[in-house]
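User: My instructor asked us to take a sequence, write out its structure as tokens, and then describe one feature of it. I'm not sure where to start. Here is the sequence I was given:
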Amino acid sequence: MAVTITRVTQDGELHEIAQLAEKIWQECFPGIISEEQIGYMVDKFQSYEAMRAQVDTQNYTYFAVRDDSDLCGYIGAKPEEDERYFLSKLYLRSDKRGSGIASQMLQTVFREARSNGKKRVYLTVNKHNRHAIEVYKAKGFVVADTAVTDIGEGFVMDDFIMEYAF
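Assistant: Let's start with the prediction itself. The structure tokens for your sequence are:
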């Protein structure tokens, strides 16, 4: 297993990540949110168009995660104006979970945050996504707050805000 995590610089890579995002969301979120909300959120936040806009106008960086050249995960993150670094997306295909790849992904995020002069990494995670919450807690994140965010079309995100301080 040779895991590589590389900054996305080519448009084609962003297209690949968007295709992977749809697959991962269909693996991860049934039973947590409705099929309708999954589809809506993939279109709004995980589609190629959404990711392209995030890179072009919101200072996002994406990373492709490959295991022996097989695209199996991705990261999307950005520095905030304050001391925080926002981990917007950290997703890994279900067949690769439990192999240590997610830990390598988090280390990449921590390096990026530090290189941007940030002191904390924060993320939002659905309050019912028990597995992700436990993984983040095991890595040193703490629940700092909660947020219910209206994302349109009658859908809300009901999240914990978790933080990791350096």
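For the description part of your assignment, you could build on this observation: Residues 45 and 51 are 7 Å apart (CA to CA). Try explaining in your own words what that tells you about the chain.
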